Structure formats: structure tokens, C-alpha cells
Amino acid sequence: MEFLCQLHERALRELPRCYKIWHNYLKLRESWVADLCVTDPACDVVEACYARAVCMLGKMPRIWEEYIEHLTRRLKITATRHVIYEALRSLPITQHYRVWALAMKMIRELNVPVRTGGELFRSYLMLEPAHAETYVAYLEGEEQWDEAARLLMKLVNDPDFVSMEGKSNHQLWLELCDMVTTHGPSIKSVDVDAVVRSAIGKFSDQTGRLWNSLADYYVQLGNFGKARDVYEEALESISTVRDFSLVFEAYQKFLENLVTVYSEMEEENEEGEDTAGSTADLLVEVLAKLIDRRLDLQSQVKLRQNPNKVSEWISRAKLFKDDPLTVIKTFAEGVKTVDPYQADGKLSRLWIEFANYYINTGKDIANARAVYEKAVKV
């Protein structure tokens, strides 16, 4: 073996740029250390030979590939990164893909520090921006949620971006919303509230789920008051019964959990009994009011979905049968809102029910007559 190495060294002194001699020599050296520990000094000799080879054959991609593979086997991450950058500077850009393939393999197979992996990926994306999703997946695997969210937000706002995984912009938006709301405390550089609200405005088919995700985000931050505000805002804005059911049930469960937590605090901590007890009592009251409001809120949702539905206005008025003033306001709002040309049902029925309410409850003939007089002018 020693004789063969000396023979190759003599040949290289005569022909220092001969690819075949260098290739055979490096393979010989590699075979010599194949069964040795990667920390053996003999491996350093092979590494030095590779360094000499690339100085002479800097435009030969195969030599660079074998050099990088040798360093990767030795688990020398920093040295491998430096050689990768040297190869990129030496080789024409048309051959860079060969180097990046090995760089990505190193990131996948070795325990590469996040800082090093991120630096390599960012450089790679300058050449192949279409592979941004691969970087997002890497960041997710390393639990770098803030940078992953920032990159994903950039992708969803790029009209020219085409997903290599076949994902639509809709799917990427939902993926972004799930990420920022699930890992809210880790997100610092993205406005989570603005992102989710933007998605709510864009995708009506996911409104209920997105409102719940936004509320969960504030729950993770411990901002229970803001979470309640989000649930209330959702109930006042959603326009489908399905979304209403999702939000209402989540809101109810949220309040029930809070009641349980504060009740347990009251039992365990006597010093905080007054504060915890009063908070628990307040939450019980809020929960009871929410349950009482369910039919009212559901009726509002149906009317937001179709404000011209006559039967729903009549049903809504019946909800407040114990509150005459609210019934009258509901009928008045109904006859004012329903468009005669787009009415879903007979508009005359709504006017008749309005007039009959005055007659049946208070024998108020004057107001009933006034209602009929307005009706015939519609």
C-alpha cells in the first residue's frame, strides 16, 4: 500500500492536473481507511489529499462530491459546510445542483445544528426558490416556528409561487393559520391576529374553525379576556349555522373549563378564596347567559345568511314573547329589512303577524291600523 501511494505521488508531481491519477489515488487512500474509526489520523491524511486535489482540479465536480462525502462520513459538519461553499465558488452554476444534493443529504442524515442547517437552506433557496416548502418542513421538524411562519407567510403572499407539493394557496393559508395559532407563544415576528383575520375574510368555508383557532391562540397566551372577546365577535359575525355550532360549542367548553379551574383554585387556596370564588361565580353567570342566548344568536345567524326570509323574522319575534317591546322592535326591523322584490316567503304574512300582535296582546286597534296602512303602501 505504501509503495502504491508513493507511486501515485511521483506521478502527480509530473502530472499534477491529471484527473485519472488523482481519482485513483484518492480511491486508494479511501479504501485504506474504510474500516478505520473516523477519528483515526489516517483519515486526516485522506482529507489533506482531497484538499490538494481540489486545488488542482477545482472545476471537476466529481472530486468535490467525493471530498464532501468523505467529510460527511467523518461527521465534520463545519468542515463540510466550508467545503460546500468552496465548491460552489469554484464550480459553474450549472453544476451547483450536484453540490446542493449532498448538502441537503447532510442536513437530513446528520444532527446538523439549526443555525448551520438554516444558513445552508437560505443559500440553497437563492438558487432554487421553488424548494421553499422543503425549508419550511425542515424548520417545523426543528421546532423553529417563528422563522417557519415568517417564510410561509411570504409564500402565501407571493402570487408567482407554485407549490412543488401541489398545494393550493388556500391550503397554504390554512397551514399558516394552524401553525401560528398552535404555536402562538413561539411566534414573535408575525402578527397572528392579523393573519387569522385575513384568512377569515378570504375563506368563508373555514370561518368557524379559524375563529376557534384565534381564540385558542389567546388562551395559550393566558389572555382569557381577549379569547372571550374573540368568541363574542365570532358569534356576531358568522353567517352559517354550521360555523355557529362550531364556535358556540367551543365557547361553551372554554367557559366550562374556566369555571372548573377557578373552582379548584377556590378549594385549594384558602387565601385566594374570595378572588377565585368571585371569578368562578362571574363565569358561571356568563355561561348561563350564553346558554340562554343560544336561540337568539342562532336566529341572528340565519338572518345574516338570508335577511329576506319572512318565516325566520316571525320565528325570531316569537323568541321574545315575554318582552313586548323587543317583539315590536323585531317586527319593525323585519318589515324594514325584507326587500319586497327578494322576499323569501310572503311578505304580507309578516305585516299581518305584526298587526295581529297589537290586536292579540293589547287590543291596540290604533297601532294595528297604522301597521296595515303602512303595509298597503309597500
TrEMBL record:
Top-level taxon: Eukaryota
Residue intervals of the Pre-mRNA-splicing factor Syf1-like N-terminal HAT-repeats domain: 5-129
Gene3D superfamilies: Tetratricopeptide repeat domain
Name under which the protein is recorded: Pre-mRNA-splicing factor SYF1
Coiled-coil features, chain-numbered ranges: none
Family named by the database record: Belongs to the crooked-neck family.
Pre-mRNA-splicing factor Syf1/CRNKL1-like C-terminal HAT-repeats domain sequence ranges: 340-378
Keywords: mRNA processing, mRNA splicing, Nucleus, Repeat, Spliceosome
Signal peptide: none
GO cellular component: post-mRNA release spliceosomal complex; Prp19 complex; U2-type catalytic step 2 spliceosome
Organism for this UniProt entry: Perkinsus olseni (Perkinsus atlanticus)
Pfam families linked to this entry: HAT_Syf1_CNRKL1_C, HAT_Syf1_CNRKL1_N, HAT_Syf1_M
Subcellular location field: Nucleus
Start and end residues of each Pre-mRNA-splicing factor SYF1 central HAT repeats domain: 133-338
GO biological process: generation of catalytic spliceosome for first transesterification step
